[in-house]
Each structure stands twice: as C-alpha cells, then as structure tokens.
C-alpha cells in the first residue's frame, strides 16, 4: 500500500520549472493560493534536495489560513541539507529520506533538531519502499512539488496518481530544469498516460488537472 500522490508544479509554456538563470517565479498569486489549498488538504508535501538547495522552501501553508501544516518530506540521498534550511524549522514535522551513504553524524544532528530520518536505499532513495514506510506511518496523501529529477523517478516508478499543473504564459527556452527530467522514456508506448479531467483559466495562465492512467 502507498499514499495517494498528487504531482503539482508551476511551469512555463515550454515546460520549464526555472529559467537558465535560476529564476522560478512562475505561479501567479492566484495559483499560489491554489497550491496552498492543496497543501492544506494533504497529509504531507514532498520535494527533492535540489529544490531545498535552490529555493529554501518553507513547505508550510502560509498563503491561506489553516489549522495544521502537512508533514514535510525531503528526499536527500547524501544528506546535503543545510542545518539552517527553513524546511527544518519548528513550524511543522519534517522527515528526511536518505540512503546508506548518509553520514551518521549528520543523521544525529538532524535528529537532535527533532527531524525524523528514514534510511532506505543504497545509492538513491528507494522511493517504492519509502512510500510503503510513509503509508505505515499513517500518511495517506502526498503533494509532490518536485523538482524535475524527483518527478522523473516518481513517474518512472509508477508512484504518481494525479497531476495538476499551472501553465504560465511565458517561454523560458534554454536547457534548464523541466517538469520531468531524468533519462526519459524511449517510446510513446512507455510514456506515462494521463486522462484530462478538468481545466480552467487562472490569473493569466491555465490549470490542467489529470488522472494518471495506471
Ligand atoms: N516551478 C515549480 O513548480 C518547481 C517546483 C519544485 C522545484 N522547482 C525547481 O526545480 C529545481 C530543482 O529540481 P532538481 O531536479 O534539480 O532537484 P530535485 O528537487 O528533483 O531533487 C533531486 C535530488 O533528490 C535526490 N534524490 C534522492 N533519491 C532520489 C531518487 N530516487 N530519485 C530522484 N532524486 C533523488 C538526489 O540528490 C537528486 O539530485 C530548482 O531550480 C527549483 O526551483 C520548481
Ligand atoms: N507551484 C509552484 N510554482 C512556482 O512558481 C514555484 N517556484 C514553485 N516552487 C516549488 C517550491 O518547492 C516551493 O513551493 C516554493 O519555493 C515556495 O516555497 P514555500 O514553501 O512557499 O516557502 N512551485
């Protein structure tokens, strides 16, 4: 058994999550409210360490009123997370998923901050195993916020159930982080297939919502 996973991003029309210059101001204010309503509905929010290192996100519900904050999950193979990262603050519970490569002292330092460290995987975090562990902990829904590398692994492993994307009316061009990176599928047959279930204008952009066809 695994939690229900919703993948959400804000992306440019050409599918990028950030410009080649590292600027990721993509979602309009209305979309950020939509994202925080999503955050308020799920048990946990999950990102890769690349996102933490670039954005230093809080991963809490702060754009709308909410009684609780979801659990924050960071996938971080070699525990590169800085101890002063905002996602480690006291505003919500945080789980770091890492691998056997992780430095034991760093694990202790994180646990001293009240962070739960889950070791699962040798080189990279074993995401299938992680989903089972999180389900056993009572987590039934996860908002996967990216970035492109973690999104690839989650789609590749068939762990994503729903997709919602905000497409901003912008073209970034260049080779920067896209919605789903990684090695990619070789053929259309292998590609993840989606069923469009809703779409609507939001601010200057458009939101598309899909179910993943399993
Ligand atoms: N616009 C948006 O909606 C949005 C959302 C999230 C992130 N971003 C942007 O995306 C960029 C970060 O994306 P990224 O791809 O560099 O990093 P990422 O956030 O996807 O983190 C990837 C890292 O997670 C770790 N990891 C451990 N186990 C893994 C596994 N099994 N599979 C994959 N990764 C695993 C690895 O260290 C890997 O490098 C940043 O620039 C951020 O601003 C944008
Ligand atoms: N949906 C979305 N649209 C964006 O334009 C953007 N840059 C992100 N980025 C995802 C990142 O993980 C964090 O959502 C932001 O960096 C905000 O972080 P906060 O948790 O609000 O501090 N996500």
UniProtKB/TrEMBL annotation:
The keyword Oxidoreductase applies. Keywords: NADP, Oxidoreductase, Riboflavin biosynthesis. Its EC number is 1.1.1.302. Residues 3-208 form the Bacterial bifunctional deaminase-reductase C-terminal domain. It is an enzyme of class 1 (oxidoreductase). One of its GO terms (biological process) is riboflavin biosynthetic process. One of its GO terms (molecular function) is NADP binding. Belongs to the HTP reductase family. PANTHER family: 2,5-DIAMINO-6-RIBOSYLAMINO-4(3H)-PYRIMIDINONE 5'-PHOSPHATE REDUCTASE (PTHR38011:SF7), DIHYDROFOLATE REDUCTASE FAMILY PROTEIN (AFU_ORTHOLOGUE AFUA_8G06820) (PTHR38011). This is 2,5-diamino-6-(ribosylamino)-4(3H)-pyrimidinone 5'-phosphate reductase. It comes from Methanocaldococcus infernus (strain DSM 11812 / JCM 15783 / ME).
């Amino acid at each position: 058994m695994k939690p229900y996973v919703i993948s959400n991003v804000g992306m440019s029309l050409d599918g990028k999550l950030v410009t080649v210059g590292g600027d990721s101001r993509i979602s309009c204010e209305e979309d950020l409210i939509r994202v925080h309503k999503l955050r308020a509905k799920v048990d946990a929010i999950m990102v890769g360490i690349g996102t933490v290192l670039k954005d230093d996100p809080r991963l809490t519900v702060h754009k709308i009123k909410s009684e609780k904050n979801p659990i924050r999950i960071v996938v971080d193979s070699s525990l590169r997370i800085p101890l002063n990262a905002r996602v480690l603050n006291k505003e919500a519970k945080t789980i770091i998923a890492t691998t056997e490569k992780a430095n034991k002292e760093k694990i202790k330092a994180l646990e001293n901050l009240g962070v739960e460290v889950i070791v699962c995987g040798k080189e990279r975090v074993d995401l299938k195993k992680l989903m089972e562990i999180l389900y056993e902990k009572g987590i039934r829904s996860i908002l996967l916020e990216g970035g492109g590398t973690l999104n690839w692994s989650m789609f590749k492993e068939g762990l994503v159930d729903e997709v919602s994307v905000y497409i901003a009316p912008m073209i970034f061009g260049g080779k920067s982080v896209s919605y789903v990176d990684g090695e990619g599928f070789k053929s259309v047959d292998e590609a993840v297939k989606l069923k469009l279930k809703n779409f609507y204008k939001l601010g200057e952009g458009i939101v598309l919502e899909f179910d993943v066809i399993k």
